[in-house]
């Protein structure tokens, strides 16, 4: 008679704080024991010589979502979650995107129906707020936050999505009152639009000019501005997809002031550079995302910022717009100028291997930091910890069994997403997941998806501790008092 449904035997169990050699016993989808010499399981996995990691939590990916210009992502919830699972990720957090004029509640209902029908691993949902009407701010958003949608993204750029400073303040005020976390895409829209128009008028239309139109100060200024708005409201924020060291320096500055400003970076800023955009023809479109990848020196500076603890979460920002075809990135065919090319690159499946290879493999970060950035921190940041993001008794049995010595050359043919390219084609990494387990079920084994469509569950998020105001700032505006005040005033 088996004691457990599953025993993972003799691996090195890594959490955000420790690495120990132990068995992991799983029962009814939960971790029941972490100890030596556990009793038998109905299924046993020999993990001798392997790492046993909490499954990855990818807290920024775009699945079954339209771009700001109306282009549909190649991945739906099935292919997106299949790809995540085969890359060692067991929880994703995509976005239910409100477009202007839409009811946020209706958008979420539709998005949830798609996720529930197709996801193979568990998922939480961030909101995108692009039309903060009275109805949205006063009713829909508070009700959705209470229902477990406790984080939302706002844009400072993209014509269809961007909020002005007043709207940002309004949204921040709701987040503060309701205990939600605001994620910010920080780029100065006027500046990048002005530069883009100048470049296009001068005939500089190729993808490489996307980077020219969005130099680091474009990101730095918006990052500083939204930090200042958040300081006025005394509300925490998270700056997503930080690409440049100059924006990172603004975050360091804010923290030195005692502000709760969190930061995310992504594989494309460590492994791609602006040189990749400079390809023959329009091939550079495959590397176009916003903010753009910077120069090679910036990559190393971001690594150092990771080592210094500046980044809280490492997400893919998987934005899977195909290259070829009428529904691909080149919407105007060979004449597509860079302003009309959908932004974003895929990366769900290779997020963990890339960071493992470049971080752990090259001695830049230790195993626990790798787990923290890719799993534990995002789970805590968005209110699904300790159910997700750790290997602990009572947590969901979401596990990536990892072969640190396995060399894989990344190629699109091996990916499980619905894309027609990967920007990391031909890159060889050392370290790859060999088995991925979600709530005790093996969902991917040796590159084969073994999960059924629709088995993934929606995860309602708790109001996260990350969103609690720091409360000690001198400039928080108190509408009841009708003045600026500090804590205790
Ligand atoms: O270029 C990017 N990052 N596209 C995806 C959408 C977004 O802004 O995150
Ligand atoms: Zn963004
Ligand atoms: Zn994104």
Overview of the structural elements:
The protein has 489 residues and is an alpha/beta fold. The chain contains 12 helices and 21 strands. It is globular, with a radius of gyration of 22 Å. One zinc ion binds at residues 185, 240-241.
Shape label: globular
The main pleated sheet reads as: 9 strands, mixed
Question: What CATH architecture of the domain at 56-384 and 461-467 would you give?
Answer: Alpha-Beta Barrel
Measured by DSSP, the beta-strand proportion falls in: 15-25%
Report the mean per-residue pLDDT as an integer. 96
CATH topology of the domain at 56-384 and 461-467: TIM Barrel
The first-level CATH class name of the domain at 56-384 and 461-467: Alpha Beta
| Intertermini distance | 64 Å
| Share of helix, binned | 25-40%
Number of strands: 21
Number of helices: 12
Poorly predicted regions:
none
Based on secondary structure, the structural category is alpha/beta
Bound compounds, each kind once, are:
N-(aminocarbonyl)-beta-alanine, zinc ion
The CATH superfamily title of the domain at 56-384 and 461-467 = Metal-dependent hydrolases
As a whole number of angstroms, the C-alpha radius of gyration is 22 Å
């Amino acid at each position: 008679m088996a004691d457990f449904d599953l025993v993972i035997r003799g691996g090195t169990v890594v959490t955000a704080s420790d690495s120990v050699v132990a068995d992991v016993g799983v029962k009814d989808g939960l971790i029941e024991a972490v100890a030596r010499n556990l009793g038998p399981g109905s299924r046993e996995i020999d993990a001798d010589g392997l790492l046993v990691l909490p499954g990855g939590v990818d807290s920024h990916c775009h699945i079954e979502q339209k771009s700001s210009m109306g282009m549909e992502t190649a991945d739906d919830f099935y292919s997106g979650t299949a790809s995540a699972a085969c890359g060692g990720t067991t929880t994703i957090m995509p976005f239910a995107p409100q477009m202007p004029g839409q009811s946020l509640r209706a958008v979420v209902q539709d998005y949830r129906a798609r996720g529930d029908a197709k996801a193979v691993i568990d998922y939480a949902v961030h909101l995108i707020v692009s039309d903060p009407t009275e109805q949205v701010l006063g009713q829909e958003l508070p009700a959705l936050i209470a229902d477990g949608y406790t984080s939302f993204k706002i844009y400072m750029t993209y014509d269809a999505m961007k909020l002005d400073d007043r709207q940002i303040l309004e949204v921040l005020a709701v987040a503060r009152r309701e205990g939600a976390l605001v994620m910010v895409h920080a780029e100065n829209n006027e500046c990048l639009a002005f530069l883009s128009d100048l470049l296009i008028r001068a005939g500089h239309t190729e993808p490489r000019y996307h980077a020219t139109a969005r130099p680091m100060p474009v990101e730095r200024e918006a990052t500083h501005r939204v930090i200042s708005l958040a300081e006025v409201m005394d509300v925490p924020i998270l700056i997503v997809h930080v690409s440049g060291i100059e924006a990172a320096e603004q975050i360091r500055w804010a923290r030195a002031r005692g502000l709760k400003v969190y930061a995310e970076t992504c594989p494309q800023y460590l492994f791609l550079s602006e040189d990749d955009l400079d390809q023959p023809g329009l091939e550079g479109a495959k590397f176009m995302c916003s903010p753009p990848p910077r120069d090679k020196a910036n990559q190393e500076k971001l690594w150092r910022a990771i080592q210094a603890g500046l980044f809280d979460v490492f997400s893919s920002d998987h934005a899977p717009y195909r290259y070829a075809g009428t529904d691909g990135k080149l919407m105007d065919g060979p004449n597509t100028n860079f302003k009309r090319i959908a932004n974003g690159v895929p990366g769900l499946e290779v997020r963990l291997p890339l960071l493992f290879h470049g971080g752990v493999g090259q001695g830049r970060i230790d195993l626990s930091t790798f787990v923290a950035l890719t799993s534990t921190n995002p789970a805590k940041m968005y209110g699904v910890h300790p159910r997700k993001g750790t290997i602990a008794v009572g947590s969901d049995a979401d596990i990536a069994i990892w072969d640190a010595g396995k060399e894989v050359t990344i190629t699109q043919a091996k990916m499980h997403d619905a894309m027609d390219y990967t920007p990391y084609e031909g890159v060889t990494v050392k370290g790859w997941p060999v088995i991925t387990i979600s709530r005790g079920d093996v969902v991917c084994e040796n590159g084969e998806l073994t999960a059924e469509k629709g088995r993934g569950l929606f995860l309602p998020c708790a109001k996260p501790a990350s969103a609690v105001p720091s409360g000690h700032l001198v400039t928080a505006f108190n509408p009841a008092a009708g003045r600026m005040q500090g804590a205790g005033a």
